Amino acid sequence: MSVTTASFIDPAAAPLPPPSSFWSRFRRNPVAMTSLLILIAITLTAIFAPEIAPHNPMRSSLRAVLKSPNAMYWLGTDDLGRDVASRLIFASRLSLIASIQALSIALIIGLPLGLISGYAGGWTDIVITRINDAIMSFPALILAVVIVGLMGPSLTNAMTAIGIVYAPRIMRVVRGSTLSVREEVYIMAARATGCSDTRIIVHHVLPNIVGPLLVQSTVLLGHALLAEAGLSFLGLGAQPPQASWGAMLGQAFPYMAQSPVPTIAAGMIISVTVLCFNLLGDGLRDSVGRVRRAGE
Amino acid sequence: MSEAPLLEINNLTVQFPSVHGWLTVVDQVSLTVWRNEIVCVVGESGSGKSVTVQAAVGLSQAKGARVLNGSVRFQGQELVGMSIRQLNRIRGADIGFIFQEPMSSLNPAYTVGEQIAEVVRRHKGAGRDAAWKRAVEMLDRVGIASAATRVKDYPHQFSGGMRQRVMMAMALACEPKLLIADEPTTALDVTIQARMLELLVEFQRDSHMSVLFITHDLGVVAKIASRVVVMYGAQVVEQAPVVTLFRAPRHPYTAGLLEAMPQVALERGHDPVAIPGVVAQAHAWPRGCRFNPRCTLRQDGPCTTDAIPLTSYGDALSRCVLTGTLTAGLARAEAAP
Amino acid sequence: MTIPALRVENLQVEYTVGKRQLRAVSGVSFEIGAGETLGLVGESGSGKSTTGLALLRLIDPAGGRIYLLDTDVTTLKRRDLRNLRKRMQIVFQDPYSSLNPSMTIGQLLEEPLIIHTDHPTSERRAQVASALQSVGLTPAHAARYPHEFSGGQRQRVAIARAMMVRPELVVLDEPVSALDVSTQSQILNLLRQIQKDSGTAFLFVAHDLAVIRLMSRNVAVMYLGEIVEQGPAARIYDQPAHPYTAALISAVPVPDPARAHMVGEIILRGDLPSPLDPPSGCRFRTRCPFAMPICTEQVPPPTNIAGGGVTACHLHQHGPRLDGQPLGDFLRLGVAP
What we know:
The structure holds three protein chains of three kinds. Helix content of chain A is about 70%, strand content about 0%. Chain A has helices at about 1-5, 20-25, 30-45, 50, 85-120, 120-135, 140-150, 155-180, 185-195, 195-235, 245-250, 260-290. In chain A, helix 7 (about 140-150) crosses helix 8 (about 155-180). The interface of A and B includes residues 1, 3, 7 and 24 of A.
């Protein structure tokens, strides 16, 4: 039976096809790649703002109020004579940090609730889902305004409010993905191995819902940025002298007739960033979707 | 044989796009189906058996495949390059299909009667009543009890085995000259499979149609086939009349498949003799004989350098340089202690 | 007198379908000796896989007792299940879905050790490496992900994972039916080797009686949630005492065209009845070619069979006799070689 024993040493076991990876699919999506590059550029700008900004964003010069763009002030100056370009560059810090802050809060609330709801099922799921549906039926920005109204206007409060408002969206995506992952045979296999529920959720469910979670988070970053801009525009977010893109838009807006460039610039940068987040999210979704069964 | 073959596939080469570029999944495959015979195509996953047949009737092109070269003649008509419209007139009428997944092959939104009648009306130009009658008759013939009432049921109201028989009724309703069955019994229980095969053979005998049956199960082949085509690594490695194939397999792969069957091991009273290694894959076909990394009879040099041609030995074809030097009955020789 | 590795008494499993209780397993009893294999065979819907899951308490039984050596599995508290999982493991049918795609092979194999042992990391890694070797893979494979492997290789990983903590019993739920034919016997041989080395008892669940016969010392045949025949594998395969067993055997196609069409072939008509409404008397009577009036009225009592084992069929006490012997003794006549 020499042939029989040959089956235990598997000479052909080694050569494996290089898997078609998530990244190799993503890389071939020009729109998503461009969005990613733009977002990286914006992030780098935010990090290295002091090196990049041509002027001190806080220094006002009463002799240079509402200047049109020129060689010294690329995008002109605002009503207090501060350099708009420099302020936009510095404001990117606040806008991005604020968005991340909101997303983090949404994740901290939504992720565990979604996991528990999807994994446990039954009454736990019904109760969590109902509360979730109730919150989601309010218009997001109005709800945020109410929460900020209660907590008092500050950027942190505004972003906490937005995080709370967006938590149900995270929760819904996480719950949905968890529900389908829960039915996979490898979850039953994990139970058969003796994994505790906590271990199953952390080691077996979570890594397999990262894809949809990443997509939703990316899109929500864009939404949070927009919501921050909205609240700051209304004066409920960033407080002077802090500058976020939304706050700048709010400040520049009354002077639109005399000096339209700051308003347009702030509006543009908000739109472009939000658009990039959305397109990146779409690209991620397309690449993530087919990752699982690749190589079969 | 003086009359022309019903289906003649000649040097068919099919490629699929992948991350590795275009992969050749069917490599110069030729096979012929005469009237009134059952031809089985045997192979494992990745052997190209399904793609060969699907590409031949223009079905895999929709999934992104391209036919690189070769010709497919059905009743003397060339199918490669034919328009979808013309193909549709042949498919379903002169060529019937049964696939592995009976659930996804039936439309859940219509009753099975409507679906069978629709096919009959489209291809035979039958009237509404005649088509409906035909649907009932066909359901009855495939052994569905109280066909006259079941014909108004939806696919989900049938069990897996019954759905597959419904598919069969649909495929045969227009009295095709050729039935293409792609692993139609693989998802079924053995008892249900036995019934399906019995029905299939019965139909074939009564109507003198031809069947091109794709399977991975040599037991099924022994039961129904008149001729067998064995595929491995996108190529035909052996082709023979059924009795010859089982009595004296000419290719080591065929012999290995037979030896690996639990039924054979049981009769011989020893462990099944496994074919070592893993199935060859399209992005890395081995040099020379595609089966050589797994072959216990491999000779470095003759088997590992040049592509091996398909050579005829008596009433069989084999793609192995050793076939000539081996005694007839490779399986038996190999199993000897 | 040694106690069996596993003893199951009158096991009941129920599912709730809508508002009704579906009894998937009703009154199943069997024993598996230490280091032995019991083959559990039946069609889909017979309750064989459910039985396997219930043994591990992956589904909670509705009644009956399960003893692993002297531990009563059925009364274990939820938190004591972890200890049970160290002693009893399972390998699932489809290795494409039973391995977590986001974990490496190394992580998958290490996990049981993390849960059940306090071995330091270095020792766990060494154990993973040797486990990979014992199933025919190499330690280098530990860093790879499941999708990089073929079906047979994945099933090797699943087997290695189940064997990591040296369980006393492993449930093998159709471990080869999703694999390519040429790799199936590799896995069967691997399992036999592992059992020889480790002395682990197996419950081998399958629908293919030839595979079961090859792998097991004893066999239990399930139909609609009940065991209809039980006994030594050799006797059951050569002289089935229940018509359902005989039908299952004759449904497995013989890889020999000369013997493929035998007179004694039993082909079942009709479909599996709904388990929500099992037939009265003998559950198999609706498909049984030998059904008699008594089969409708009375549940067949267990009858001891001469070659060993038990069956539940009226043919052994009632009905026609042949040469003074009950008809039940001749069920395999036409199929024997």
